[in-house]
Amino acid sequence: MSPPPPQEYTLDKVNKRLHLSKVKHNKVNESGQLLLFHLGTSAWGIYLAITEGYLSAPSSLWEDYPHTHLTFQMKFFYLCQLSYWLHMIPELYFQRVRKEEVPRQLLYIGLYLVHIAGAYLLNLTRAGLVMAVLQSVAELVFHMARLQYFTNPDRQALFGVWAVVFVLCRLATLTLAVLVMGFGLSRVQRQSLDMEHGVFNTLPIRLSVLLSVCAPQVWMMWRFINFQLRRWRQSRLEQAARRKVAVPTRPAGARRRDTGQHENGLIKSEDGSSPRTRKIRSP
Predict the structure, then answer these.
(1) Quick one: average pLDDT of 10-20?
(2) By C-alpha distance, which of 61, 271, 91 is closest to 182?
(3) Which tens digits make up the pLDDT trace of 150-181?
(4) pLDDT, tens digit, for every residue of 96-146?
(5) Helix axes 72-94 and 125-151, enclosed angle (nearest 10)
(6) 3-state per-residue secondary structure call for the chain
(7) What percent of the chain is modeled with pLDDT above 70?
(8) Rounded to 5 degrees, what are φ and ψ at 35?
């Protein structure tokens, strides 16, 4: 749910102080809200993963499947996630998001809803929790870097930190998906489709889930690599342009002039006096 007090007392003051444009104003509001949401998701998810023992025993992510018996905090975590992303759909209208931004925002919201609801309905809540934490950590660092950039465009150090965290989280999510879907669930005892007892452990379902997790990760990595390459080329062009401006070029027919002055074919020194001519003795 959107947190109105921080937006009213913090984000609006930042926008008024920085005199941002309407586009940047909307981005600051968006990053401020998502920063708080991903901060809470990361802290809550890490606490659940530690208390439930998922980090100390990774095999518990697929053992005893199906995971139908959830603790109150685990169930409440998923309900909060679903309610937040569902409320973001009408929020696009109330925030008066530009029409060009609506498809991107709907895709962003839809990916969250599909993965969170899928993990909850297929009783893959343990693996879904860890993947949600990985995604929230990467998003948290990104929105911190973007807010820092809007407050001071010269400070972009956090974007480098975000790039490292982003790649690590993508690799960790891919590894976890292959480990759980490819190796873990294929070795548990219940290899069947039993909707009454919440068992969805068949090869087609596992492959579908694996594809639905890996495809967005590969797509995000592809966009990230293209963005970094485009940014690298742009910086190279800017550096080359600065070198051309810093080093002045000589005219084509220019010659190096002597420090003295020329007058009637004789070289004079800087004070204007002609050098004394030496007498040549006759042989």
Answers:
(1) 57
(2) 61
(3) 888 777 888 889 999 999 999 999 999 999 99
(4) 778 888 888 999 999 999 999 999 999 999 999 999 999 999 999 999 999
(5) 40
(6) CCCHHHHHHHHHHHHHHHCCCHHHHHHHHHHHHHHHHHHHHHHHHHHHHHHCCCCCCHHHHCCCCCCCCCCHHHHHHHHHHHHHHHHHHHHHHHCCCCCCCHHHHHHHHHHHHHHHHHHHHCCCHHHHHHHHHHHHHHHHHHHHHHHHHHHCCCCCHHHHHHHHHHHHHHHHHHHHHHHHHHHHHHHCCCCCEECCCCEECCHHHHHHHHHHHHHHHHHHHHHHHHHHHHHHHHHHHHHHHHHHHHCCCCCCCCCCCCCCEEECCEEECCCCCCCCCCCCCCC
(7) 78
(8) -60, -45
> Quick one: tokens of 109?
């919201």
Which tokens is 42 given? 């990361």
